[in-house]
C-alpha cells in the first residue's frame, strides 16, 4: 500500500518537474533570449539611425525573427514536437512557408501602430520579408520531403544537392521568394503592398491546407501502416507546387492594378492607355501561369507513370 503511494508521489513529482522545465525552456528560448537580442538590437539601430521610432520598428522585426529562429531549440521539449517529428514534414512545410510570410507582413501594421501618423516607412514590408523568409530556407533544411526512408521512419533530402535543386517544388519555393520581393518592390510606393500580399497569403494558406488535406492524411496513415508512400508523396509534391505557383501568379496578375488603383485614390485618374497596359500585362502573367500549369501536369504525370512501370 505504502509502495503504491510512494510511486504515485514520484510520478506526480516527475510530472511537476517536467512541466517546470518546459516552462523554463519556453521562457528562455521564446521570451528571455529574444527579448535580450531585441534590446541589444534596439541600441544598435538607435546608434545607427538616431531615431527612436525606426529603432522600435526594427526591434519588432528582430523580436519576431528571434522567436521564429529559436522555436526550433524549444521544440525538443514539447510532447509533440513539430520539427523533431520527422513524419509530419508535408504539413510542416505548408505551415512554415505561409506563417513566416504572414508574420513578416504583420510587422508593418505593428510598426504603424507604435509610430506617429507622420512616420512612413514603405520599405519595411520588403525588408521584413527578406529577413524572415530566410527562416523558411533554414527550417526546410530540417524538414525535407524528397523521399521517405522507411527503415528509420524519417523524410530525407535527395542524395545530392544538384538533384534536390532540380525538384520543381524546391524551385517554386525559391521562385516564391523572388516574386514576393518583386511584388513588394514595385508596389511599396502604394504604402499598402503588405496588405495585398497578406490577404493573398492568408487565402492560399487555407487553400493549400484544404487541397492537400486528403493526401497528407493518406501519407500519415501509410507511414503508420508501413506502406509505400512514394506515389502519394509525388501527388503531394504536385498539389503543393500548384498551390504555391497559383499564389505567385495571383500576386503578379494583381500587381499592375494594385499600382494603378492605389495611385488613382490620391492622384489623377488612370488613362485608358494605362488601363490597357495593365490589362495586357496581367493577361500575359495569366497565360504564362497556364503554360506552367500544363507543364507541371505533364511533369508529375510522367513521374507517376515512371513509378508505376518500376513497380511492375
Description:
It is flat and about 85 Å long. The protein has a two-stranded antiparallel sheet with strand order 1-2. Helix 7 (193-211) runs antiparallel to helix 9 (230-266) and helix 9 (230-266) packs antiparallel against helix 10 (272-311). It is an all-alpha fold. It folds into two domains: 1-81; 84-311, no CATH class. The chain has ten helices and two strands, in the order ααααββαααααα.
Quick recap of the structure?
By secondary structure, the protein is mostly helical.
Number of strand elements: 2
Q: Helix coverage percent of residues?
A: over 70%
Structural class: mainly alpha
> Strand count, sense and closure of the main sheet?
2 strands, antiparallel
Main-sheet strand order equals: 1-2
Q: Can you tell me the overall shape?
A: flat
